[in-house]
Amino acid sequence: MSVDKYKFVSPGVFIKEVDKSQLPAIAQQTGPVIIGRTEKGPAFRPTMVSSYDEFVKVFGEPIAGGGSSDAWREGNYSSPTYAPFAAKAYLRNNGPVTVVRLLGVADSDADGTTAALGGAGWTVPSLGDGPSDGGAYGLFMVNSSSLGDNDDTPIGVTGTLAAIWYLQNGTIALSGNTRGDATTATASNASLLESTAKHEFKVAIADSGDSNAKTYAFNFDPNSDKYIRRVFNTNPVATNTTTTNTAKQESYWLGETFEYAVNDTCTGSLQHGLILGLKNGTNQGGDFVGIDARPSESGYFIAQNLVHASGSGFEADSQPELFKVVSLDTNGDWNQRNIKISIRDLKAPKDKDVSPYGTFTLEVRKINDTDSKRQVLETYGPLDLNPNSPNYVAKVIGDRYISWNSTERRYKEYNDYPNNSQYIRVEMSENVKNSLVDKESLPFGVKGPLRFKSFTVSGSTNADNLNATSSFVSADGICNLHDGTSISTIHIGAEHTDIKFQFPGVALRTKSDVPEAYADHKKAYFGVELRQSGSSTRFDKSNVDLLRAKPGAISSFDASTTTEHMWAFTLDDLILQQDNNDKHAEYVSGSCSNSESITAISGGYQAVLDGGFTKFTTVLHGGHDGLDVTEADPFRNTLLQGKTKLNNYAYASVMRALDVISEPDELEFNLATMPGITNESLTQELADLCEDRGDALAIIDPKGGYEPIHEGAPGTYPKIGSVSDTVSNMKARDLNSSYACLYYPWVQVKAATGQLIWVPPSVVALGTMGSSESRSEVWFAPAGFNRGGLSEGSAGINVISAREKLSADDRDDLYENRVNPIASFPSEGIVIFGQKTAQIQASALDRINVRRLLIHLKKEISRISNRILFDQNVPATWNRFLGRVEPLLASVKSRFGLEDYKVILDETTTTPDLRDRNIMYAKIMLKPAKAIEFIALDFTIMRSGASFDD
């Protein structure tokens, strides 16, 4: 430190510390990038994980395929996810890996309004007039005892939507007795039909052309053999005529069912039901095309009552909006099906003059836990709404998000604070950001998810009037099962009865003391009630259906003329009750404005907090995967064949992932793979990307190998594949690059569940490269019995067998055409038996070990070069460069990566002309060490008297 830095005024001894002992930053380790489907996690955002446990936490376990008992509710587990197996293979041997999850998005240049125009998502046919049209249909239910008789004075009755079916073709109709009529309407949507028992109905479903009609008896009791989700097909994949066995095909699937609403609304011994088509104007209830993958959100958290002392004039849904919780990135619907958000420990400011802001804590919890046995995934607190505070909620949790820039074809990041949560970020209202809300404001309540508005059916209501209610229900196109005629009148059977049909909503907790018998009722979280109706503490799975994205162009987040928030919950609507010296709270919507709540009676919200009622919970909703739910594998190769990013969302989604990883300055990796994708156009894009970057090797799965059952028609698929097909495809395609490599055949591995599945060769090739690098060096060939023995664990996962046992001629054919064989030997087991790149010309770079050596050296020397950028272009700087590069190359030589090398950097390379142009030019000449791939041994038999010297 220069003495000039001291300030001398009066005599004394001046001491300062100068710390120059800091260690230089260590460059982050580079690993592969893997593109593919995963169970959960951020989509299209490259995410690095350093261990397999971390991978599972972020992206979930590998899916082995085979499906689930209820695919609609539990998600698509019909086909294997190969990317997680590849990540597992590499991470068991090495690390880290960068994962890019695929979901469904349309290309920004595509029309995207239909599937044929590149739209993401799925659809069933629009409601029409013919018997084969299909569409989305809802069962609406009402208590029979509430309907009254024809001679009664007009009464208002409330019913509910109970279930939704999605028909690819054909018709659906209720079967049973009409109201007030003992005769049976065997199949009708024109009448209210009576249930056969409590919540039990019959439905007739027919295929296109009124064929194969079948009647189903069902109810809404999960413990019954007739439970609706056991009786009907709940797997959309079964309706895919391309990939499903004809004997197992269905013309429909059962989508949403609302057991809680049925039990809560229809409490009588018998009910009447009505099936109506789901439609509003041009918006079809079964049209989810055009919805790109997107994250789920909560409603806005709202402030407490700070204005209406007596409660009069207070409206919860008009309270200032503070912030909302949004799932991270484009992660689809997993969060809304698995987590919920709680606010607890609400505290008013202690001294408004000193610190006018209150505090609170935010929890991320598992959606199916209970308040008495919480499963908290993340906790943040104490938090506040002060933008200048270190506890500001956006600063602590994070508010950053990414948005796709279609012009630059890359994601751009927005907002101020980095995200610290694995699951969520917050989105602040502009008024909070700009300190325009009352500083005392706390998140005292929250707005609920959206639902469609209710509609009323009268005894003489016809189709036109029914549509005029602006509900999401239409009588247009509701087809009589037997003659296909369009129904124009709904037969109610009681002229004076008005039935108000509601769309279900997530329930709210009404009491702090039930169903859990708390000794201290302050432990209860108000807000959403996600348990089954009655005294059960079990999670009600119908909540998952209530949180789904809305169809078509209907917003899932902003209320409109056809939608409304399910509720606007607030702690200001708590009423204090006392039973035998036992105080507890009850939630009654509107009680504050009626001057009945704790807030209204006490003249302020503080009394609610003083009573210990400081907790409530809400849900996330509206997220969407953007995938075709009728596909076992939404990215199957037969679906991608012949497509472009403009006419196929799956193709566009893979291209989006490739765009995301294309910029070397934004993402570093040394290997890249898309396990299971054999589409030659897309694999060429990956190879070209790696070559353009010049710093990574693409591991490609060749076309012509094994094709799983989800690729096409049963009986035709699975296809075993063959060497001849693979070789023919390689000869026909224009792939010539030292930045790509291919392997054959597929191999069988054992999943964590014990299930045996076939995985593409890129999975084990990637794992083997990880283990080879870990055991030796990146420039050693990842092949042979020492480093490529799959049976001996080189792949990182348990390899059982190869899809095809290759002969010597097979191996020769593959290797001659730049495909590396995975061979099987009786004694040595399964082994990777080649290490060629896809380069046609014979050179050192037609081998993987040399290409990976060059990638490694270019990266390391680039890092050295970065350290002298903008330094003086003089011999002293050149010597600094040489002083770091030559030891690096010497080290690689000593570790058998190079036979020899030479570096020239002097005035013969960096001439005066180049210096005038601010250029330093060095020549680096390398002789890579080659791997032994062929061993020739001559065994010469000599006569007894011969001399070995001859």
Which percent range describes the beta-strand content?
A: 15-25%
Q: Flag low-confidence runs.
A: 150-154, 461-470, 475-489
Tell me, rounded to a whole number, the average pLDDT.
Answer: 88
Strand order of the largest sheet: 2-3-1-34-35-36-40-41
In DSSP terms (H or I, runs of 4 or more residues), the helix count works out at 22
Write down the Rg: 34 Å
Largest sheet, if any? Answer: 8 strands, mixed
Portion in helices: 10-25%
**Inertia-based shape:** globular
What does this structure look like?
The chain has 22 helices and 43 strands. It is α+β, with helices and mostly antiparallel strands and 950 residues long. The protein has four domains: 32-109 and 627-850, Rossmann fold (3-Layer(aba) Sandwich), CATH 3.40.50; 135-287 and 452-502, no CATH class; 301-448 and 507-546 and 567-619, no CATH class; 891-950, no CATH class. The strands form eleven sheets. Strands 2-3-1-34-35-36-40-41 form an eight-stranded mixed beta sheet, sandwiched between helices. Strands 4, 5, 8, 11, 12, 25 and 26 form a seven-stranded mixed beta sheet that branches. It is globular. The chain starts with 31 loop residues before the first strand and ends in a 22-residue tail after the last strand. Mean pLDDT is 88; it is low at 150-154, 461-470 and 475-489.
